[in-house]
Write a structure and sequence with these properties.
With about 90 residues, the protein is α+β, with helices and mostly antiparallel strands. Helix content is about 35%, strand content about 25%. It has one domain: 2-Layer Sandwich (Hypothetical Cytosolic Protein, Chain: A), CATH 3.30.1230. Strands 4-3-5 form a 3-stranded antiparallel sheet. The model has no long low-confidence stretch (mean pLDDT about 90). This is YlxR family protein.
Length: about 90
């Protein structure tokens, strides 16, 4: 019996490899639009951020997502990331 392999992705802020499900994917579409991708299935350049309030704040302060996605990231996206983080914590 083989064990199922857990897909790992690297957080662009901490550079840590983590299970894909514990990260939030942010995508830049071919049109240049930047948005959250909770399904991790949308096409475009993706960046994974740890689902952790401090790491999301660090990404905001250091503009990590802007550099990684090579696109302007609206301030509202970071607020959306924070809301998504809290939503994930509730039972």
């Amino acid at each position: 019996m083989s064990t199922k392999k857990i897909p790992l992705r690297k957080c662009v802020v901490t550079q840590e490899m983590k299970p894909k499900k514990s990260l939030i994917r942010v995508v830049r579409s071919p049109e240049g639009e930047v948005f959250l991708d909770p399904t991790s299935k949308k096409s475009g350049r993706g960046a994974y951020v740890s689902n952790d309030e401090a790491i999301i704040e660090e990404a905001r302060k250091k503009n990590v997502l802007e550099r990684h996605l090579k696109a302007e990231v609206p301030e509202s996206l970071y607020d959306e990331l924070q809301r998504f983080h809290f939503k994930g914590k509730q039972p």
